[in-house]
Amino acid sequence: MERxxxxxxxxxxxxxxxxxxxxxxxxxxAQEPGIHVVQITKFAFVPDRLEVSVGDTIRWTNQDLAPHTxxxxxxxxxxxxxxNGSSAExxxxxxxxxxxxxxxHPHMRATLEISGNREPR
Length: 121
Ligand SMILES: [Cu+2]
Prior knowledge:
Elements: H1 2-12, H2 16-26, E1 35-40, E2 45-46, E3 49-52, E4 57-62, E5 71-72, E6 87-91, E7 99-101, E8 109-114
Parallel strand pairs: 1-4, 3-8
Antiparallel strand pairs: 1-2, 4-6, 5-7, 7-8
Bound molecules: copper (II) ion.
Copper (II) ion binds at residues 68, 102, 104-105, 108.
């Protein structure tokens, strides 16, 4: 029941932050892909270190007035520009780069930890 409820929340989107927090608490033992929310605020990624699994979605939400990006250190993946109040999502894939930054503000840096695989659905 809890999983069904979580999946519906992901689709609805409005309550996705609460879902992401719940997912984080469940940790690596959760079987279904989850959504991890990273807030971009005051020129920083929060959290700046995120544990994810292949198949999970990472959603960056920009709370700053300035535009930002989430861009892999070697440019292997890129959110493209995220303007104030909007979000971008990337699905975690096997072997993807785990360090990223903002191309507009290269001092903004963060890291992913890819902890394991989930069964394809
Ligand atoms: Cu930026």
